[in-house]
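Extended Data, panel c. Modelled sequence:
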Amino acid sequence: MKHGCARAPLLLGILLGCILTLGIALRPSTALASANPSTAPVIAYQARLDGQILDDTALGTDSSGAYLIHHLLITALLHPIGAGPALALRLDLSEAILPDAGIVQGPDVFPGGGTVNAAGLLRGSARVTDPGGTISVYVADVRGLYLADGSSHLDLEGAGVGQAQGGTASLFVTIAPHLGSAISGQVSGSLNLPQAALDLLNDSGPLAGPTLWYLVRASGLASLGLLCVTVLIGLALRVRLWQPTLERWRVYDLHLTCSILTAVSLALHLLAVFVDRVVPFSLADMLIPLHASYQPLWIAAGMFGLYLLLIVWGSSLIRSRISYSFWRRLHPLALAALGLVMLHALFAGTDGLALWLRAALALIAFAVIWLFILWMRLKAAAPKKPRHPISSQS
């Protein structure tokens, strides 16, 4: 019976390895197309635009007093005329308007647009997504003019992200004069859109929508939560905290179960990240630190945390073949792994800015530090055993 229990984690690891291998084999072939930007078709893009101004905040004047500064936040849907996918546009702009309705003549931002009467400047950034806002396609720099007739001309020059990585966008937007928050206009230009991104935007399957994204988030948060419980139980055992209660709940079995469940949820998280087509990760991105283009530093933190956990789990699988003292010296690596995983969740995860996650991680960090300090005090107070027995001389 004991041998069967000891082999269970090993069998589970082999099973998870098979699942991961199967996931690699079944990864959609279209997800690999973005690795070769030369296959990206250039689309002459024309669309009708409608949207709204979410924020128009006056920020005062510039340092010279020559311009009135506004902050604009605009969202709009692009309805294609002819070829090309339906898209959504989010503009984050700074607007510098000449006071007293001053008018200057300047070159239009449109190619070959000649000279126009302008009343202000527009600068900022844009994000182009699918209509639902879950799939980022391009991130663009924006420059433009606020014209004397109340309309706006914008030039968007952007680079692809996610499945559109390697592609480019060059779009020119006309926003008609508007009353209130509603806007309308026209879009023209070109999209260098990799086939994988085009397939993703036109696909209605589960890999294109938010389903897999929710799975990535849920499995990642589950792994983090289970790892926190595992580490806290381990520290509580070291300091013999509430020992009668813990023993009544068979805490050693609970510690082992949480550790196994951490491995299961982590394997599911890695598999979901790998097959996700919105922000694609290659095998090298997932195994080589700083190789990923998305948040390389914080993705690397998660990788190093995983490697430390693999050392801890591996030492437990071969515990009968190594000394007990060496196994115990390796076990605290789980503490470092937890810290790295927490950084990964904060700065690479979608929920990193959420107040509830930050508050939860702060409480967990406080509990871990408190238990760790208790553990160090117990170690310092424990009587030290002599390294060598004292021999008597005759």
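The first strand starts at residue 42 and ends at 61. This feature is highlighted in the accompanying rendering.
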